[in-house]
Amino acid sequence: MCSAFTKLGHQCFFFKKHPSKFNGWVKASKLDLLFCMSSSHVPSPEEIASFRRMGCRVIYWERAAKRRTGILSIFDKYFTIYDDASGVYLPCASIDHGKLKKEPELGVTLIAAKKYDAGSWGKCRASLHQKIDSDIRGQYVTYGNIPYKAYDSRFKIMAASTACVAIWNTYKAVPLRMIETPSCRTPLITYPFPVFRKLFTPNEHYIETDSLSDSLGYYLKNRQELTEIAQNGYKHFQKHHTYEHRVLQILEELRCD
Description:
Layout (H helix, E strand, L loop, with lengths): L1 H6 L14 H8 L3 E5 L7 H9 L3 E6 L8 H4 L2 E4 L7 E2 L18 E3 L9 H17 L4 E3 L7 H9 L3 E3 L10 H8 L4 E3 L16 E2 L3 H10 L1 H18 L2 H13 L2
């Protein structure tokens, strides 16, 4: 995300020091905008208030949508990948991986790990795995556990796959892997997923199906159609769903205030 801000002409700094030095760094840097993420140090409400008094706007991107008490009033803007009005909806984005080699093909890859967390997310993931396992009956999926692979390795795996079968934790958010797949020019296959339809068009940019077995059987016999869908998805990704596009959405939201 930081590199996307830079590409669009903004001077950016990455804070990599110990969190105890964070406040002094913010004050000394005289920042116009502080962009916090859930995976990094997040200042306390008191610290954020002091930054805002200095004229520094503080925005927050929460991938996990924890919905902290009063979070919308603590930050100037609160962004989330959840399309549920908990914050400004900002779906995941990706880097262009279209130049990665397509050969040799690995077959059909399941882009999820068979690890179930407690709660509704875990139940959703578990039920989807069960449906996929019974649907394809072990015929197609040849590689899994993508999230636990090294960053570069997972893109090489996706790029070398004939197609990727997507799985998600919740019906309100689009996982990053679902956008990473078109960024590799690889066909994406999912069960019906309403939130994703807001970003990509089913059966034009990706394949939506009630039966993986039937769809895989058809498209693996009609490779030209499969290739066209992959190319359409890649072009649509390039036009709408890179990190640069998300930065522009953030800046537009801030301009609207």
